Amino acid sequence: MARNIHSLPGNVPALRVLFVAFIFLPLRLVTAGGQQQQHNYFAALHKSILFFEGQRSGRLPPDQRVQWRRDSGLHDGATAGVDLTGGYYDAGDNVKFGFPMAFTTTMLSWSIIDFGRNMGPELKNAVKAIKWATDYLLKATAVPGVVYVQVGDPYSDHNCWERPEDMDTLRTAYKIDAHHPGSDVAGETAAALAAASIVFRSRDPQYSRLLLNRAVKVRRYYNTTVAVFEFADKYRGAYSNSLYHAVCPFYCDVNGYQDELLWGAAWLHKASRRREYREYIFKNEVVLRAGDTINEFGWDNKHAGINVLISKEVLMGKADYFESFKQNADGFICSVLPGVSHPQVQYSPGGLIFKAGGSNMQHVTSLSFLLLVYSNYLSHANKIVPCGETSASPALLKHLAKHQVDYILGDNPLRMSYMVGYGARYPQRIHHRGSSLPSVQTHPAHIGCKAGSRYFLSPNPNPNLLVGAVVGGPNVTDAFPDSRPYFQESEPTTYINAPLVGLLAFFSAHP
């Protein structure tokens, strides 16, 4: 289980737009042959979306393309008297963690909002991937005053190596409510519902309204509000304080819940254009610490994403009162430039972004996504980012993001694609239960909790190809073990793939 244990404006002097040589030096590929590969970004896009079908929980639909998977978790929620079937397993385990699932949904939605026009025939599959998540999030928020945030006891689950189809571990349903707050996961859920409502606005207006209303419309039921964002804001607290033994250390909120409140409000403003959310952001910017850790972005920390998302309004000339968010976004850009000394962002010898903690590819894809998004915003506004004695142009930011994508796809010292099923060489022994165990089709008999251990420890490649899965990736020296026990390197996650969908869509149209 992978976690965080964590055209230029005419009045700019020419000197400011020169790219100093040190910025490009770390981007020279350190590969065996020294030649950059030609990549089929559209094929990679297809595979990156297909991966989500391999992560599905619940009753699989007739058009399910990952054929070695079968129905699973069909009684989820029954112990609590609710229907919590569906949704996604977050990684290589069989638990449905609501916090990363909601973030995954937000990032898939943002990918379509900004880059859906580049997805071609894959757009319909990307939309289906979002709906599989939002259908579940609607179930998780259907009970007034309650948000169900997890299904499955992680300790009993992690004590077994079982196919999801064979699960006989505890499927406890965990919830937050007024007495057990969780502003972080509720705020992210509100963001996911709002972002997805934009995706469905023209495709399915009724469903879009349902998503947005669940996030924003306040209804009363025994004096309890059901709108998810109001719930998050009214009952403030971190869900890992309320549910510590269920969510820690797996998806423990280390960063605090304040960023999710701003993040949720930002997406609600984008989706609804309601003045109240713009005022909420403006009034709470300092209180909720918008300027903290500006170069962090992932399921636990939304700061860089908040600043980039809100900066679009500033760059479009619509919201000068959000200028501080643009300054933070500019600071984020400068902090991730290669060659700029910053303690929180490193680059491997092969040029991969590296941050401390597990599952490094989550940082690579999320930060690269922001680089690309901000590049587009700057391009439309005819702006650059000043960084001391140099400047970052939109073209440079696209170049940086593309280099990270190319590294994932095989332009790296090992000449290995870190996306399963893409390229001639890719990880064969990923840390993933369903992929590593015989499928129900080839082995119909039940495989018990400990009976799967021999498959976990086997040196053999996984029998089922989880096409499109991007693993946690190599370490800071570009080394990769390709071994199931090394879960930080070999486990895929939904939140690695979600921002990559947008990146691959763009580069498939602009190689």
Written overview of the protein:
- There is one protein chain.
- With 511 residues, the chain is mainly alpha-helical.
- It has a single domain (14-509), classed as Glycosyltransferase (Alpha/alpha barrel).
- The protein is built from 20 helices and nine strands.
- Strands 1-2-3 form a three-stranded antiparallel beta sheet. Strands 4-5 form a two-stranded antiparallel ribbon.
- Helix 3 (98-115) runs antiparallel to helix 4 (123-140), helix 6 packs antiparallel against helix 7 and helix 13 crosses helix 14.
- The protein is globular.
- The relative contact order is 0.16.
- Mean pLDDT is 90; it is low at 1-34 and 221-225.
The CATH topology name reads Glycosyltransferase
What's the rounded overall pLDDT mean? 90
Total number of distinct structural domains: 1
Largest sheet: 3 strands, antiparallel
Judged by helices, strands and strand pairing, the structural class is mainly alpha
CATH architecture: Alpha/alpha barrel
How many extended strands?
Answer: 9
Order of helices and strands: HHEHHEHEHHEEHHHHHHHEEHEEHHHHH
Q: Quick one: CATH class?
A: Mainly Alpha
Q: Termini, distance in Å? A: 33 Å
Rg calc? 22 Å
Strand content: 5-15%
Number of helices: 20
- Strand order of the biggest β-sheet: 1-2-3
Helix amount: 40-55%
